[in-house]
Design a protein that fits this description.
Blueprint: H1 2-18, E1 21-26, H2 30-41, E2 46-52, H3 55-62, E3 69-73, H4 81-91, E4 96-101, H5 106-112, E5 117-120, H6 125-145
Parallel strand pairs: 1-2, 1-3, 3-4, 4-5
Length: about 150
Amino acid sequence: MRQKSFSFKLQSELDMENDVKTIFLAEGETHVLNALRLMIEQQSGMKVTGEARSAESLLAQVCLQAPDVILLDWNLPGLHPQRLIRTLRECCPATKLIALSVKPEDEKSAKEYSLDSFISKQLPAESFVASLKQMLVVSHNKQEDS
């Protein structure tokens, strides 16, 4: 029995790897945006499909073609996070929203606004990517269950 369970989990992870996730980067700081793009482009199963440095630019792009995931700078210039999140949920309801911030206290706010996840910008690159991958695996498994 245990072997079947392990095989199923392994198959699920393989399915996720074959399923390329589209990721949109919404980050106000150019050097952070460049670092995020570089980290993600080096990963299999992930593809950066767009970038925005303001809330207005983000909405103009993702409402036309929704990505699987938006990495959202919690301090993105433009709109208040609550208004931005509400608009994103309306225009692309299936998209997973992941808040990014250097401030640990922003994680609580992100949860209050019902974001799907939070990742600290202070994490080393390997830990950041591992957190993102974990969120994608959890998201993929939830989709299979529904």
